[in-house]
Amino acid sequence: MMMNPVLRRETKTTLRNWKMFAVITVYTAVVAIGAILYIYGSMFNSYDYSFDPQSMVGMYTVLCAMQMALMLLAAPALTAGAISAERERQTLDLLLMTKMSSFSIVIGKLMSSMSMLLLLMVATLPVFSIAFYFGGVSLLALFGMMLYIVLTACMAAAVSIFFSCIFKKTMVSMVVVYLLIGGVCCFGTLIASLMVNSLYWSMYQTEPNIVLQMVLLSPNPGVGFFSVIQEQMGNNFIDMIFGNDFNQYSGVTAFFIRHYWLVNVLFDVIVICIFVSLSVYFLNPVRKKK
Amino acid sequence: MLEIKHLSKQYGKFTAVDDLNLTVPDSSIFGFVGPNGAGKTTTMKIMSGLLKASSGSVIIDGMDVTKNPKALRESIGYMPDFFGVYDDLKVSEYMDFYAGTYYIAYEKRPAMIDNLLEIVDLSHKKEAYVDSLSRGMKQRLCLARSLIHDPKLLILDEPASGLDPRARVEMKEILKQLQMMGKTIIISSHILPELAEMCTQISIIDKGHLVVQGSVQEIMKQITKVRTIQIRPLEQMQALIKLLQEQPLVENLIENTFDTEFSFQGTDQELAMLLKQIVLAEIPIASFKEKEGNLEEIFMQVTGGEEK
Ligand SMILES: Nc1ncnc2c1ncn2[C@@H]1O[C@H](COP(=O)(O)OP(=O)(O)OP(=O)(O)O)[C@@H](O)[C@H]1O
Ligand SMILES: [Mg+2]
Predict the structure, then answer these.
(1) Start-end of CATH 3.30.70.100 domains in chain B
(2) How confident is the model at residue A59 (pLDDT cuts 50, 70, 90)?
């Protein structure tokens, strides 16, 4: 098996560049400072200003949320220039002329961004091990959470690659992706769901169809995140989001409420497939029609 | 090897290439000449499958470029007019990357890369970073890169631009060497004389139209229907000028300090008649000769003429 040439080249040059190590250091520092602030905060909030290992569970949630937010910020920053930077430095034509298919190029770019993100995540593991050490979480839970975060970041990266194929300027792609992921996926879906909710109450004096709500919130990485936390910590974030009496549901619906993150995972996988295909299509210089 | 049939390319309403027909024979060096904006780059990009033609077709080895672009990439080496390099790679790594994009086995690469760098005379820069190379070296590196998969057809868009005279000569040598290795080379340039001595075939295009095509000699013949005659009289320059001005076949008369030049639009017989007239007028002639067709002038004549 030969390693994807694009991935090989990019890993080689990134690892050689001191900038990457600066980024890793800063990133780890940010996560570590977050952890320290949290410990201090919880000590001041406790009655006897002491350290309470119980708060480690909360710390795990906060750290993971931070990790997730940072990953969603980092993914477009690393990927939005994947194609447009090649175009800007006039190497894209050379790359397109080679035997590499557009698909391998896109996948190579995607994998190279993802490997950088993974590197960042691995670098923060020592910080997470504090929560782990005090018995906050199991290793398996942490691993599962990481997987969910990686998949979400991959979704953001796939969308970024697509925009980097169609926009000339890297900055434009980056802004568009932030607006889409932050504005539409995170806040847009939440607002839409709240609006539908109040609309239903005012019109029918009842809650909206739960399936509609679930579909509306499927792009929201935050809801999925809390669903994973609920799965791992046994608290009830998701019940709060979907209304309190979800016990009335049974069968498939109940299953998906309980494991709501599956809906997000499904959404992410579909988006990745669609946007990778679109990128491959738009990368082809002699595609059928504009 | 390569055939272009009724190729046209429009950018919006602007027609960059208009009904172009070309045939490039096997293992030839095919020169593609034209002024800025003639459509050379556009045509070459279409040939390499990087641009979609508006109509017409490019056929390489009997295969339509648009039908099977992937198979053709293996037989085409392309060097664009402007190109960038990955500046954080060494020369050998740069070559290795492109070897990778053609899925050449790892263990075969070092020998291949050494060999290619040898051809373009960059062996001594093997461990240098690509962005530390001079422009001419980058150009040669890009040529080596386009050879990495041993393509049968090389499409080189102005490979000599930005090179000093010595490097141009070296580039020519490299290309001749490649031709001897059995490759077909299509090369573009603004400068006709530069291509003339190395190309087996030349086509001149202007504003998307084919002006002439053929071997250098054929083109000279086709274009030099109008020849330039130079006469140097010993004395009586004014009498000579007066006599020439009366001739219907004489045009563009130029009077220099010691001689006179004009274009003559007649047959050899008519030219002989003219000389006889001058001799009969008892003007002493020291020299009477047809000026060698100057490629540069031909080019200007062919590509500039229609503008008026
Ligand atoms: N992407 C484009 N959009 C619009 N017009 C274009 C585009 N690319 C080229 N053209 C136009 O097509 C014409 C031919 O351009 P082309 O680059 O093929 O010329 P060329 O012969 O390579 O010129 P040069 O010697 O300057 O490299 C020009 O008039 C140019 O303005
Ligand atoms: Mg050009």
Answers:
(1) 225-292
(2) confident
- CATH no., domain B225-292: 3.30.70.100
Residue from the list B84, B93, B145 with its beta carbon closest to the beta carbon of A90:
B84
CATH 3.40.50.300 fits B2-221, yes or no: yes
Q: Which of B9, B42, B83 to mutate to test the pocket of ligand 1 (most atoms within 8 A of CB)?
A: B42
b/e sequence A156-184, b meaning 16+ C-beta within 10 Å: bbbbbbbbbbebeebeebbebbbebbbee
pLDDT digits 0-9 by tens, B19-37: 999 999 988 999 998 888 8
Query: Is B22's C-beta closer than 6 angstroms to any atom of ligand 1?
Result: no
Tens-digit pLDDT profile for residues B191-215:
887 888 888 889 988 888 888 888 8
- pTM, rounded to two decimals: 0.85
- Binned at pLDDT 50, 70 and 90, residue B294 comes out as low
CA distances from B304 to A261, B299, B307 (A): 69, 8, 6
> Residue ranges per domain, chain A?
5-289
Place of tokens 């002329």: A97
B256: confidence class by pLDDT, cuts 50, 70, 90: confident
Distance CA B239, CA B236 (A): 5
Measured distance CA(B244)–CA(A51) in Å, rounded:
112
Map chain A to HEC letters: CCCCHHHHHHHHHHHHCHHHHHHHHHHHHHHHHHHHHHHHHHHHHCCCCCCCCCHHHHHHHHHHHHHHHHHHHHHHHHHCCCCHHHHHCCCHHHHHCCCCCHHHHHHHHHHHHHHHHHHHHHHHHHHHHHHHHCCCCCHHHHHHHHHHHHHHHHHHHHHHHHHHHHCCCHHHHHHHHHHHHHHHHHHHHHHHHHHHHHHHHHHHCCCCCHHHHHHHCCCCHHHHHHHHHHHHHCCCHHHHHCCCCHHHCCHHHHHHHHCCHHHHHHHHHHHHHHHHHHHHHHHCCCCCCC
B38 close to ligand 1 (CB < 6 Angstrom): yes
Q: What is the mean pLDDT of residues B63-85?
A: 87
Contacts of B155 in chain A (CB under 8 A): none
Candidate of B8, B14, B81 to mutate for ligand 1, largest count of ligand atoms within 8 Å of Cβ: B14
* Residue range(s) in chain B whose domain bears CATH number 3.40.50.300: 2-221
Nearest to B49 among A2, A3, A286 (CB): A286
Would you call A168 an interface residue with chain B, using a CB distance cutoff of 8 Å?
no
Give the per-residue pLDDT at B307.
43
Q: What residue owns the CA closest to ligand 1's atom 11?
A: B16
Q: Is B303 in the pocket of ligand 1 (CB under 6 A)?
A: no
